[in-house]
Each structure stands twice: as C-alpha cells, then as structure tokens.
Amino acid sequence: MDLGEAWESEARAWIAWARAPGHDSYVRFHRDLFFPLLPAPGRATVDVGCGEGRVSRDLAALGHRVIGIERSPTLAAAAQAAAPTMDVRCADAVAMPLDDASADLAVAFMTLQDMDDLDGALREIVRVLEPGGCLCAAVVHPLNSAGKFERLTADARLVIAGDYLRPFRYADTVERDGLKMTFHSMHRSFEAYFTAFQNAGLTIDTVREPAMPEDRLRTDASRRWQRLPLFLHLRARRA
What we know:
Layout: H1 3-9, H2 11-19, H3 25-34, E1 45-48, H4 54-61, E2 66-70, H5 73-82, E3 87-90, E4 103-109, H6 118-128, E5 129-140, H7 142-146, E6 148-149, E7 158-159, E8 168-176, E9 179-187, H8 190-200, E10 202-208, E11 231-238
Parallel strand pairs: 1-2, 1-4, 2-3, 4-5
Antiparallel strand pairs: 5-11, 6-7, 8-9, 10-11
Helix pairs in contact: 6-8
C-alpha cells in the first residue's frame, strides 16, 4: 500500500480529526505561522494535497482563486461538499489536470512528506507554475520525523536512535480527546528536500523553523517544542 492508498484508508478519521474544533495544531497555531509566507492572491493558487479542504477554504477567504488537488477520492469529495463553489479535482500530485504555467502560487501544506514521489510532485508543481511563480510548503521537520522525545516534559531530550540521512517510511498513531488517527509519512532529511527543490527548478528564498507560540501552549510539556521545531516552512520560486 503506497502513501496515497494509506491516506485514503484514514480519510474518515482525518476528516473527523481536522474538523474537530480546536483539536489540531493547524487551527491552534500552525496556520497563523505559515500563512505569512504567502504572497498576495494572484491568478490562481493550487492547493496541492488539499485533503478535506481546510487550507483551501482559508485561502479562498483571503481572496485566493483556489484549485484543490487531492488524490484521495473520499477527501476530495469532502472538500467539494464543504465548499460547493470551489474547484476541487481528484488527481495525483504527479499528474495534475492543469495547463502549463497556469498558476502563480502553489501551496503544499503538510503534504510533501505524505507523497511517495516527491521529485515527480515538485516537477509537476513547476510545470503548472508560471515563471517566477511561488511554492510555499510546510512539512514535518526532519528532526521531528527522525527523532523521538524520551518523555513528555518541557526539558526532555530528543533522541535520534536510527538514521537521519536515510529516507524511510513511518506511521504515527495518535489518540486524543476521543479521536484516533494514523499519520502515514516519509522521513526525508533537510538536504533531501533542498536537493529535490533544486532538481525541479525551484530556488528556495525563505526557510523557517517556527517555535510553538507562548500564547498557544496547552501544557508545560509542550514547551519542548519551543526548543526544537515541529515543522519546517519553505518558500521557493520557479526560475
């Protein structure tokens, strides 16, 4: 089962997880850390791996003309149902049903680590971006996907027991507030992301490793994410 099939198997669980009020980090703090990377709305914004549509809906509220691309039929249908007037297309990120140079912005929010063919997806993003077009991406930080905290305390050590440099697939099952979700992803080093962007013809101009904001902490143990980053944010442009 590839990553796309794995996410289709978790689609109903993800819809419940993503739409539970205040449940996920996206609503709690991550959206507000990521969106300042984005340029102003332009011709078209492609939401690559739009899932159930929460990022697409927020982009549309900011004035973006959004085209959502989602491989999972269940998630694509949920995104369309939640925003009937939005353009949502059920398609793989490596073969998007879009014309060459038809968009000036692509957003890949927490999706690139969930794709088997990162190189193919980035080449396809470059194809649909106009020259000078922008890709803004958020991924699980490679330190986070490679390592684990020894315990859930503010001063806990992060231990990388395996291999940081070698890509590997992993699955994290999380239960919280009565909801259970398994996240299927691929660990890649920062160099692997940088090289993939470079090979696709993208020049990274901004790198951010955001810390959890003080006013969004729920427990003292969450302070461990003020010492080490949960996420990696990248902004790049097509040459």
